[in-house]
Amino acid sequence: MFTEIVPSHKVATWLLSTIDGGLDSIGLTHDKTIEEIIYVCIIVAVAVLIGWVLRRIILFISRKWVSLHDTEMSHELINQRVLTHCSHVIPPLVILGLLPFAFDTKSQLLHIIEIALTVYTLIVTAIAINAVLTFIWTRFDKQENTKNLPLKGILNVGKGLVWIIVAIISISVIVDKSPAALLTGLGAFAAALMLIFKDSILGFVAGIQLSQNDMLRVGDWIVVPSTIANGIVVDVSLSAVKVQNWDNTIVTLPPYTLVSTSFQNWRGMSDSGYRLISRSVIFDCDTITQCTPELITAITTEFPEVKSYVAKLQASGKNEYDPGLATVNGTIETNLGLFRAYMCQYLLNHPLIGTDQQILVRIMTPTGEGMPLQIYCYTTTAWTAYEAVQSQIFEHIAATCQKFGLKLYNQPSGNDIETLRLHAEDSKTA
After folding, report:
1. How is the chain split into domains, by residue range?
2. pLDDT tens, 120-175?
3. Alpha carbon distances (Å) from 199 to 168, 196, 210
4. 394 near 279, Cβ under 8 Å?
5. What is the pLDDT of residues 291-348, one digit of tens each?
6. Which of 3, 177, 183, 396 is 20 to 30 A off residue 151, Cα-Cα?
7. Taking the CA of residue 166 as centre, how many other CA atoms within 13 Å lie in the half-sphere pointing to its CB?
8. Whole-model pTM?
9. Ramachandran angles phi, psi of 104, nearest 5°
10. Quick check: helix, strand or coil at residue 410?
C-alpha cells in the first residue's frame, strides 16, 4: 500500500549486497533465513533512526522558528507537539518500503508483518490527524469563538470519526476485505451501534442545540435544579458538562440533561451589570398607625431627604404616584407609607443602586406574622459588594424603622414567654 512512497528498490538492493558481502567476509554461507533476519533488523534500525533524526530536526527547526516568530500560535505548535506526532508516520513507511525485498513474494511471514505495519501506520496517521485537528480547534476556540460557545463536542466527533474510519480500514486490511463490504455488513448492527453510542449521539446533538441556541458557554454561572450543580461551567465536551460549584467541587452532567430539563443561566445578569435584590422584612401590624403632624415634623427634621416629597403631598392634598422606574412612592397617611417614601429616597441616593433600573419599596400580601415590606432594586454583580450592599440596606431598615414608630416582627422565644409570665405575676402581686 505504501511501497510507492519510499524509493526502496535501489536502497534495498544495496542493503542486500552489503549483507552478502558481510557474510562472505566472515565466512558464513548465504543462508536465506539469516539474510532475512539481518535485513529486517537493519531496516528497522534504519527506520527508527530516520524517525528519531527527523523528530530532532523538526524540534530544532520549530524551536528556532518560535524564537524568531514569538507568537501564540508557534508556542501552541510546540506545546501540543503537533509536528512530533506527525513525524511518527515516517518509520513505518520506511519499513514498508524496504521490507518486501528481504522475503519471497509468497512468504506468509512477510504478509503478516505487512499487515501489522499497515495497521500501525494507520494508527499513527490517525494520531497525527487528531493532533492537527486539536491544534486547529484550539486556534479557532481562542481567536474566533469569542462567545465561548461549547464547540468541543464537534472536535470530539471529528476525532471519533477519524478513529472509526481507521478501525474500519484496519479490519478490512486484517481480513483482506473491501471497506465497502464491511460497511454493508455493519448495517445489520445499526441498532446495536445506536445503543452502544447512545450517550455520544445524544451528547453531540445536545452540544449542537446548546451552541446553536447560545444556551451555554464556558464561564457561565448555571444552576440545574434537578441536580446539585450550582457554579461555573469549566468544560463542555461530547459526553460531559463540568460545573465547578462554589465549594470547588466538580459536578459532571450529560449535555442532554441540560437540553431535556430546565436550568438557570446567570449570564444575563453578568452581561447587564446589575444583580437583583428582592428581599422582605415583616413589620408588626400593631405598630402601623396613622401619621400625626408631630410625627411628620419629626421625620422631616431628622431625615430632610424626604422633606420635599412630603411638602409636595401636603401641598396637593392627595397622594401622587410616579410611574417611573426609579421614583419615590409613599404616603403621609401612615407611618409605614412614610417609611416607604424614605426608603425609596434612600435607595435613590445609594451610590451602588442602579437608578436606571426598577426600584420598588412595596407592601406584600399580609401574613399571620405581620405586614411584609419588600425591597426590590438592582446593584453591582460583584458578589462581595452585592452581599455588602444588601446587608447594609436591611441593617439600615432595622435601625431606622423604630424612629417611624415601626417594629420588626420577631417570633416569640422561650425567654419572651417567661418575661411575660414574670410581668403577669408582678402585676398580680402589686
Report:
1. 8-210, 216-268, 273-404
2. 888 888 888 888 888 887 777 776 655 555 566 677 777 878 888 888 888 888 87
3. 21, 8, 16
4. yes
5. 999 999 999 999 999 999 999 888 887 777 788 888 998 999 999 999 999 999 999 9
6. 183
7. 19
8. 0.59
9. -70, 150
10. coil
